[in-house]
Amino acid sequence: MADTAALIQPDQGQDATLIHLVNKDGFDNWAKKLSAAQRAALKAQKFDGSGYQVGIVPDGDGWFAVGGVANPDKLSSWCMAKLAEVLPEGTYRRADGQPGPALHGWQTAQYRFERYKKPEQPVGPRILLTKEAGRIEGAIAEAKAVCLVRDLVNTPAEDMGPADLEDQVEKLAKLHSAKVSVTRGDALERDYPMVHAVGRAAARSHAPRHIHLTWGKESDPVLAIVGKGVCFDSGGLDVKSSAGMLLMKKDMGGAAHAIALSGLIMGAKLPVRLHLLVPAVENAISGNSFRPGDVLKTRKGLTVEIGNTDAEGRLILGDALTRASEEKPDLVIDFATLTGAARVALGPDYPALMTRRDETAQALIEAGKANDDEPWRLPLPEAYREWLNSDIADTNNAHANSFAGASVAGLFLDKFVGEGIDWAHFDTFAWRPMPKPGRPKGGDAYGLRAAWHMLKARYAGT
């Protein structure tokens, strides 16, 4: 994609094409200021101020743009995104105000995944000016984080295996002077037995590992960010259908979110002791695949009967959450593309959120609403814990009925988070099936900005 840092710049009076923002209710009054020829030009374009409409208006030897928004006095992240997608290359400024939150969508609208296919007619950057200097650095960082999630999720599994996730964490560590430890092989089988079991059937080039980054002062409150890193999910011996497998390159979307969020935390120097934990595997099929009915050991000491090998993400997260809990964290947040049930319940746009504490859920929901990234809370019902009972082990990894799949998966994870620890779980889709302005089809971040703004408020007071 284009360099996000170049897409928004301080307004120092440089030449720029004006953008007027209007809505349908106010369009007629606004249009009275135009000449008859200008009104005719907009009429020919069928512009009436409806949301995401874009019009070009001749003005002497030049032109200006007009965009339809819901409310020109209260902009969203996405209200100028369509303009950023369709206007010609150039520099722009809003005519009657500042872009504010629309800086985000202006950047993400220009995202392109070009690793394997270059555009036939490349379009240069559309630059937006703003006098809100205090917004620029944060807006650039957030857009970069979202675009990183998109890049990682869009990359096919052959080029985004466990070793590639490790490389991404190493790059992040180098950038922010953090430390990384990686557990593989015999040590993985001993210390993270569920991560090893899920990943052991993969080819050597995609061998499983547990990646652990640490950063920050040891005296600061511990914040643990955990991301599910299933780089491809065949379903294991409970194999998925071909249609169900088609998008499984995105099953490491939780890890992508966790890596991007950790970059924001370190980039802003948030006063925390950060632990980023990414269990990275490929759930493959071979002669040594783990089986339905197997009983796995865990880092915590619990035993887990395998009711379904396609419920593997919760297994690797269980070991990682146990390790995170050993640091006595102030807060644990995990991201995972965990259940189809969450998508059935909420669709692609709302990440399912489960928390132990009401106040943590409320803080995340409010931060999400304020930044156009709203999660939706689902319960962790005590009444459903018994559905994970096993006759031969401490717990099963899957329940036998088809009810409340997202919540039951959350209840399984809850077994591995230390007692009394504040914990939030995002069951996120990490994929956008249909494009919207600023949000192209493909890998995408859901819940990332909600978590980031909540963490800033919690730890930096901003």
From TrEMBL:
<dbReference type="InterPro" id="IPR000819">
    <property type="entry name" value="Peptidase_M17_C"/>
</dbReference>
<protein>
    <submittedName>
        <fullName>Leucyl aminopeptidase family protein</fullName>
    </submittedName>
</protein>
<dbReference type="GO" id="GO:0006508">
    <property type="term" value="P:proteolysis"/>
</dbReference>
<dbReference type="InterPro" id="IPR043472">
    <property type="entry name" value="Macro_dom-like"/>
</dbReference>
<dbReference type="GO" id="GO:0005737">
    <property type="term" value="C:cytoplasm"/>
</dbReference>
<dbReference type="Pfam" id="PF21337">
    <property type="entry name" value="Peptidase_M17_N_1"/>
</dbReference>
<dbReference type="GO" id="GO:0030145">
    <property type="term" value="F:manganese ion binding"/>
</dbReference>
<keyword id="KW-0645">Protease</keyword>
<dbReference type="InterPro" id="IPR011356">
    <property type="entry name" value="Leucine_aapep/pepB"/>
</dbReference>
<keyword id="KW-0031">Aminopeptidase</keyword>
<comment type="similarity">
    <text>Belongs to the peptidase M17 family.</text>
</comment>
<keyword id="KW-0378">Hydrolase</keyword>
<feature type="domain" description="Cytosol aminopeptidase">
    <location>
        <begin position="308"/>
        <end position="315"/>
    </location>
</feature>
<keyword id="KW-0464">Manganese</keyword>
<dbReference type="Pfam" id="PF00883">
    <property type="entry name" value="Peptidase_M17"/>
</dbReference>
<dbReference type="InterPro" id="IPR048816">
    <property type="entry name" value="Peptidase_M17_N_1"/>
</dbReference>
<dbReference type="GO" id="GO:0070006">
    <property type="term" value="F:metalloaminopeptidase activity"/>
</dbReference>
